[in-house]
Fold this protein.
Amino acid sequence: MLEILEASGALSSRELSLKSRMPERTIRYALRILKEKGFVEEIYLLGDTRKRRYKLKAARDALCFV
């Protein structure tokens, strides 16, 4: 999943699910863990705050959590 985000930039959980061919529930669970560990950040869309996109944090920020 990290490789997909690295190659594609910010994506929704649905888009990640389609690209990885994994169930969306599994993607959301993994995103929650990656977000807690500081590898991924969640972006709320201004037009609709119910929709979120996820992107990799900057490498130097993520290294602080390893």
Remarks:
- The radius of gyration is 12 Å.
- The domain at 2-63 is CATH 1.10.10.10 (Arc Repressor Mutant, subunit A).
- The chain has one domain: 2-63.
- The chain has a mean pLDDT of 87.
